[in-house]
Amino acid sequence: MKRKPPWNEAVRLAALERYGILDMPSDAVLNSIVQAAANLCETPIALISLVDSSYLWLKPCVGMPEIKAPRDYSFCNNAIQEPEKLLEVEDASKDERFKNNYLVTGEPNIRFYAGKPLVTPDGIALGTLCVIDYKPRRLSTTQRDGLDQLSNAVMELFHERLESRITAIDHIVEQAIQDGVMITDANQPGNPITYVNQAFELLTGYSKAEVLGKNPRFLQGPDTDPDKRSQLCNAIAEHKSCTVTLKNYRKDGVGFWNQLTVSPVMDSSGKLISFVGIQRNADDRLLAEDRSLRLSKTRQQREQARASRNRLAQIVEDSTNEIYVLDADSFQIMNANRSARNNLGYSFDESQQLMPWDYVEGLTQENMNGLIAPLRAGVLDTQVFETVHRRKDGSTYPVSTHLQYMAAQDPPVYTAIVQDITERQRQEESVRLRERAIEALDVGVTILDATKENNPLVYVNQTLCRMTGYSADELIGQGAGIFQRNNRQQIPHLEVKAAQAKGESVQVLFNSVRKNGSRFMNELSLSPVHNAKGKLTHYIGINRDVTEKLETEERSQRSRKIEAVGQLAGGIAHDFNNLLRSLPEIWNS
After folding, report:
1. CATH number of the 319-421 domain
2. pLDDT per position as a tens digit, 353-409
3. Contacts of 513 (CB under 8 A, 6+ apart)
4. Mean pLDDT for all residues in the chain
5. Which of 35, 260, 490, 524 is 20–30 Å from 268 (CA)?
6. CA distances to 421, 457, 473, 481, 493 from 513, in Å
7. Fold (CATH) for 179-282
């Protein structure tokens, strides 16, 4: 479904350009946020989608490659129409907005989508943080809240980077006041100078009137490095920024080292209009100071990087998930965090000697090669699978594993994030047992959503389906009134409404209608269900077809009436016979 751009599209695109994130490379922080979204929502795909005028810029991504995709007909284009809301599509094949979308009808056959807009402080949506699945599903409240928090984290990161860029630009402007500035016209032959500041005049000895209209090459001379000159010319030809230090000459013929930075300037349509050159006197003293400053800054950056790595290492070590780093060639464990060592029962030194098949049930080196093949080929970013881990003492426990190939590391490694799913499987089995028990009941069971208008059905068992002739798919989402059709004003319906208003249970008898139009007597017991905070969330209905029972009772009652009438008639006949026998005696007397 193609959506028109939001009313503030021009403002939104300007904000997107101001943040400068379309060409932003993926980094570890954004990757970790996207991976956290996939883990939280238990989906194979998660990504950050930035929406420009024509395309979606998808990066970083988990479960699919980073690409640029057409904007029209995209899910994210719909999501940004309402920046304050999370767009959740539980089954795109049944959603009128998306069921004919080529992403739904063909590869990749999307069924589930949830996207939380990435919103600036002034309410402008730049894109979304979204999760995608190939099968229908519904997010829990916890997952929705978590996705909202993660989208806020992405915007906080974008905003920090924007402020850093603004600070850097302000710094450049301040420095430019002290440095020589010249501007050339990129649309005129020879890039003639159209502006110089006073610092340029002091640095070169030329007045503004003497240089306007000239090509900046007039400052060069016999000792100007031809390689630096070529580097500068190539950058200008390719419309790129460039910084070189080359020998220039003042008006009096005295040479000086000029640290020159040239940058292209584009108009709003992206057309090159000029070049700006920033010139700085780079004699030995200034070069020495500059080197000292760069060294100091480099040391500071190294310290910051070291501190950042230490923080990240501590986060990994303290994670409740098991985290393994494997050598990409041998598969030997290079590092296993505390949770991994504790769960497996190995010491740090012992863990360094382990291979994956030493603790993964049924895994061989051949199996391992099969798992990593799509990662090495770039077909998959993450290999997700469930398996069983074996502890040092021989006991086992089920796990879910996210395996990634980190080719950019030196040397390349595999990282495995492993979650113990013992409790999850126990809960899933408990749910399955309860579902099987409910399905085995000889009464129809319905569960209705009390938080929505008309209390739609969210669950029915097979007994109810057999009782009514409807399939579960036909009933889910319908109001329970489907069984009364146009007879919603019958007294039992009013009794149910009265009980719901009081928050009480109720038992009534409905004259209900099956899908084929036949009627049956439905004895309904309806009870309210509250959550841990006491809020009404659902109703549970127990439905019994008592048609045959009532008919049997009616036949029995009719038989008793007939028998009573017969007995009465027999008594009358007996009395009449006695009267007839006594008549002759009466007449004789």
Report:
1. 3.30.450.20
2. 999 999 999 999 888 899 899 999 999 999 999 999 999 999 999 999 999 999 888
3. 483, 484, 485, 487, 519
4. 85
5. 260
6. 45, 17, 18, 10, 14
7. Beta-Lactamase (3.30.450)
